[in-house]
Amino acid sequence: MRFAIFAGSFAPDWLIVSIEHLSTLTSLRLKLLTKAICAHLLTTTPSNSGSVMESPGFNSELSPSEVKGCVAALTFITVSATRVLSSSFSDGSPPLSQTVIAAELHQLGLPQESAEGFSKIYDEFSSRLVQWNLEVMCRGANRMDDVKWRVVYDA
């Protein structure tokens, strides 16, 4: 099935798996995570977007790899929706509405309340995210420059 939030493309398989994990989070936790991801995208200084996962209020029963998948999925959805919204201003197509975003996330497997929560938080940040996306496109910058990673070996 094709989705407007992915510019009329299919949802990647890894995203479907990650949405399954996202659906185990409460809508409040999903809203906190969405807000942290949107704020992280808008910052110019590198920060740890996973820090919300370590806060006392988050307390998820997901494994570290599942948490990383959830962060990646929400980031992918946010950036994809922002690109579609940005392009709608230039090509005259109708912009994504809060209702469309919530409906498509629900079709992907998120509970209705969580899908609506994501779309409300996204709507709060959408104008700033569109501006950020246009600036990134103009600079030709890759946001992935600030990613830090390490390999942890279990003994």
What is this structure, in a nutshell?
With 155 residues, the protein is mainly alpha-helical.
Shape: globular
First-residue to last-residue Cα separation: 43 Å
What's the tally of helices?
5
Beta-strand share of residues: under 5%
Mean pLDDT: 80
What can you see in these coordinates?
The structure is a single chain. This protein is mainly alpha-helical. It has 5 helices and 2 strands; from the N terminus they run E-E-H-H-H-H-H. The protein has helices at 13-22, 27-42, 64-91, 98-108, 112-139; strands at 2-3, 9-10. Strands 1-2 form a two-stranded antiparallel ribbon. Strand 1 and strand 2 (9-10) form a beta hairpin. Helix 1 (13-22) crosses helix 3 (64-91) and helix 2 (27-42) packs parallel to helix 5 (112-139). The relative contact order is 0.17.
